[in-house]
Amino acid sequence: MLVRGSVLLACAALVGTTAVANAGAASAETCSGSGVSLRYVVLFDQETSEQSAADEIESACGDQSIYYPEIGVAVATSASSGFADAIGPDRAFSAQAERLARGHSPAAESADEALSGGAVPSEDRTSEQWDMRTIGADRARTIEPGSPDVAVAVLDSGIDARHPDLAEAVDPDLSAGCLSGAPVSTEDAWVPTASTHGTHVAGIVAAADDGRGIAGVAPGVRLASVKVVDDDGYVDPEAAVCGFMWAARSGIEVANSSFSVTSPGMPCTTSEDQGVVREAVARAVEYADSSGTLSVAAATNGALDLTPSPGSGTAARDDACEVLPAGLRETLAVSAVDASGVKAGYSSYGLGVIDLTAPGGQSDDCVLSTIPGGYGELCGTSMATPHVSGVAALLASGDPDATPALLREALGEQAAPVACPENYDLNGNGTQDAYCAGYLGYNGFYGRGMVDALAAVSGDSTPDPASAEQETGEPARGPVDPQPRQDDEVRDVPDHPGVQDPDRQPTRELDRVVERQTLHDVLQGLGVDRQRVEGR
Ligand SMILES: [Ca+2]
Ligand SMILES: [Ca+2]
Known about the structure:
about 525 residues, Rossmann fold
């Protein structure tokens, strides 16, 4: 606190003078500001020490809240309007400033009261869980409910730990609030305050198999409530970074991200500031992955085509759209299907991005799960994603040594392939609503297919390490599927003149993919690595 106080004094003293104490100190102009303290995520070279980072932030009239030395990312606050400029281009970003600039009021610091319900009905409602039957979870959990040595971090709006179907699973010692960008482990920091979302997601992963209410995919595993969604529904990049770092440092096996890092007006764009956001979140996810935390994330609900653009990573195509963290290489991206197994209309999709699919529901058939005070139905890729996280937790339970790479490989190999639909005119107006590129074993709607809980608990749970080692190798030319199956029909994606997108090229290269070799070449041209193609 002594340091913080002296920083503020130093900045205040500079206002209205022309004196600059030393070469590194901020000028009078950069220290003057609106007086509104805003939070920033700040990038440093990865080798930067905590003190060096703090010094640089101080000299820019900022106050370092926390520094993550493992990834060279700091969270800072500053009331100086020149803070980002003083730090330098492409190194600092404030989601709060972005919202203010767009006329949104700052997010509430926190709601005063935790969401909580009264008595929860004890009626057995597992017969309504069509989603669990779809992935074989109802049978799987009788074989393997999951180990309490395995934890799933639900990066979300908080989990109601008083819910009888969650009380045993939620581990307060593994839970934290991350809204400020720095973890706070007191309970009031990680309980839900404005949204039932996190509690709903948590129930899908691990609601108790106790004959009451519902049962989750892996009722035997522990849950960590890691609050990253603020009361206005935003996930700022510093909150996401904090969440992944918390999961990694806590040794948590799976991080479920049923959210995307967004700011108003930039749901998935690639603006300059998005570069800072992407870099910060990517570093955190990479670190988590290398620490043994598997990242599983929702494809999002905007019915977006997330297909990577030709050329490089993210932004060569004007309408290229990347969502975080689902679009990151180490993350398993999950699309959502309805009760009939067809991609839900809202689910985003894209060849080279979607890894797996799972039940998210649609319209009248949403997914039943826990909410504070009882049970409720929600639809979305947010609901699909925890099905995959739950199955990943089952796999980790059976093989404590499984790395994220091994879990990804096993999930992909065990998934039940889902073919592209012949016709995807959901509203019946004669035009296709989206186009599914790829073949049975790997396509833009379903990735490698429907996640399979029963397969995860039957027989060999994970492939041998030798096959996973391949994925660190150079991208190789050759068949997409190393062991082609007879039933792998290569899908000829039809022309689609009626698509309702004026910017869309009538025949994009992907739509002419007719054979696997070509698909592989196309994906390589798009910068999609071999791991994506082969399911990693
Ligand atoms: Ca239950
Ligand atoms: Ca249509």
